[in-house]
């Protein structure tokens, strides 16, 4: 789960593997990463990691619709003028303004003290909205926080329950500049009992880009019925794509021994629009493997769409070879051993956790102040690039990789 300034994104990793989509949707109100639901954007035929995205971030603007309904996003104040608390001319109440008023964000130490937030400007913006709702500014600020969570639940549901996956089976890896502020509340709503906040959470996507393996995909259309497929022609096409992919990896500087290849078929039911990817375990494909491929497609269809039609004929649409370059050395740094103690930073401030808990005197620490022992919330963990809020009823510790691990008590 990644929450930044304008959008929130979600994806799912099952059995160590993330899913890929043959296309991406851009420019819409939401991209739900689901072939049955569109977000009103433009479809780009480029393979991507299957990600659901909604317009909810720290800069998302809170507003009242024509019927007086309380809304948050998808409009955003962006970085300029930004939230009202930035003091750059923004006047609309945003999620960041709400989080400052609630005590989750430090108005004097954001970005290591390089950015001072104007809490009175945030209060004024939220108060203007509160008048239209007939409630207090703090209730309005907490409402902004909760409505933003509800919008982001769309993305999390799109990659879990809408695909037949039980969210409570998974921990959430939360990152982005705002991810740590909201992720525990989202986890509670989904019944998830563990949250992980990685080091450098605010720039984690950028680190992912730097550490990612080089990958090439070669695709060729092969529009044939599966029950009448010419295996010789299919295997010959795969061999040509394999050679093309290996040439691309070699041009990137990867020796043949440092190249890992995967093979996939794009299959659909006859008459259906979208196809699903099915892994091919070995080449050349033998006739005895066709029933296994058909069953793998049916299982993927059941998982993705909730049903299978075993009597329907199958249509092969395309074949794909995915080549990955294997680095000579590990891309990620060695694990960091967590300390067993906890140093007390001594800072505290009031933070509001809803009507159930109200205002609580909340310790404020850095990630370095945590250790291997669990610390009970409420707790705010401040870093240069992100803030993590440990809600009441949660505990936090560091693991051996310097991740913050939060568990529901």
Rg is 24 Å
Mean pLDDT rating: 89
Distance between the termini: 21 Å
The percentage helix is 10-25%
Q: Largest beta sheet, briefly?
A: 5 strands, mixed
Structural class: alpha+beta
The shape, in one word, is elongated
Total number of helices: 7
Instruction: State which percent range the strand residues make up.
Output: 25-35%
In spatial order, strands of the major sheet run: 13-14-25-24-21
Quaternary structure annotation = single chain
Describe the structure.
By secondary structure, the chain is of the alpha+beta class. It has a domain at 215-325. It has helices at residues 95-101, 119-133, 137-158, 179-190, 204-211, 231-251, 290-305, and strands spanning 2-3, 8-10, 13-14, 17-18, 20-21, 24-26, 30-31, 42-44, 48-49, 52-54, 60-64, 70-76, 172-173, 194-197, 215-225, 259-269, 276-280, 314-325, 347-352, 359-365, 375-376, 379-382, 387-390, 394-398, 404-408. Helix 1 (95-101) packs across helix 2 (119-133) and helix 3 packs across helix 4 (179-190).
Can you give keywords for this protein?
four-stranded antiparallel sheet, 28% strand, five-stranded mixed sheet, alpha+beta, elongated, 409 residues, 7 helices
Give the SSE layout.
Blueprint: E1 2-3, E2 8-10, E3 13-14, E4 17-18, E5 20-21, E6 24-26, E7 30-31, E8 42-44, E9 48-49, E10 52-54, E11 60-64, E12 70-76, H1 95-101, H2 119-133, H3 137-158, E13 172-173, H4 179-190, E14 194-197, H5 204-211, E15 215-225, H6 231-251, E16 259-269, E17 276-280, H7 290-305, E18 314-325, E19 347-352, E20 359-365, E21 375-376, E22 379-382, E23 387-390, E24 394-398, E25 404-408
Parallel strand pairs: 13-14, 20-22
Antiparallel strand pairs: 1-2, 2-10, 3-4, 5-9, 6-8, 7-10, 11-12, 14-25, 15-18, 16-17, 16-18, 19-20, 21-24, 22-23, 24-25
């Amino acid at each position: 789960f990644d929450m930044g300034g304008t959008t929130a994104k979600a994806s799912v990793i099952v059995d160590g593997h993330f899913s890929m989509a043959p296309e991406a949707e851009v420019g819409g109100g939401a991209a739900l990463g689901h072939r049955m639901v569109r977000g009103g954007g433009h479809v780009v035929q480029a393979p991507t990691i299957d990600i659901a995205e909604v317009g909810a971030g720290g800069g998302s603007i809170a507003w009242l619709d024509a019927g007086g309904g309380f809304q948050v996003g998808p409009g955003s104040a962006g970085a300029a003028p930004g939230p009202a608390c930035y003091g750059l001319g923004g006047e609309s109440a945003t999620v960041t303004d709400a989080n400052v008023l609630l005590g989750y964000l430090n108005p004097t130490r954001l970005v290591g003290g390089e950015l001072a937030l104007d809490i009175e400007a945030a209060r004024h913006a939220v108060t203007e909205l509160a008048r239209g709702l007939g409630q207090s500014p703090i209730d309005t600020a907490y409402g902004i926080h909760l409505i933003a969570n509800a919008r982001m639940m769309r993305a999390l549901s799109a990659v879990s329950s809408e695909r037949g996956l039980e969210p409570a089976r998974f921990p959430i890896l939360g990152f982005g500049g705002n991810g740590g502020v909201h992720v525990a509340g989202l986890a509670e709503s989904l019944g998830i009992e563990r949250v992980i906040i990685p080091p450098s959470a605010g720039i984690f996507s950028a680190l992912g880009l730097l550490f990612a393996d080089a990958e090439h995909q070669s695709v060729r259309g092969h529009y044939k019925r599966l029950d009448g497929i010419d295996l010789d022609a299919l295997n010959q096409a795969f061999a040509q794509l394999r050679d093309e992919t290996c040439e691309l990896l070699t041009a990137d500087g990867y020796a043949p021994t440092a190249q890992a290849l995967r093979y996939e078929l794009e299959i659909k039911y006859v008459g259906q629009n979208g196809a699903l990817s099915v892994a091919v375990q070995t080449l050349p494909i033998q006739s005895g493997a066709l029933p296994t491929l058909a069953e793998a497609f049916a299982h993927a269809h059941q998982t993705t769409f909730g049903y299978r039609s075993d009597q329907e004929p199958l249509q092969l649409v395309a074949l794909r070879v995915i080549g990955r370059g294997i680095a000579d050395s590990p891309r990620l740094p060695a694990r960091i051993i967590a300390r067993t103690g906890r140093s007390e930073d001594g800072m505290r401030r009031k933070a509001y956790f809803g009507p159930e808990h109200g205002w609580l005197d909340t310790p404020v620490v850095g990630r370095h102040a945590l250790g291997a022992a669990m610390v009970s919330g409420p707790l705010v963990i401040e870093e240069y690039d992100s803030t993590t809020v440990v809600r009441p009823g949660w505990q936090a510790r560091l693991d051996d990789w310097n991740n913050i691990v939060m568990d529901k008590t």
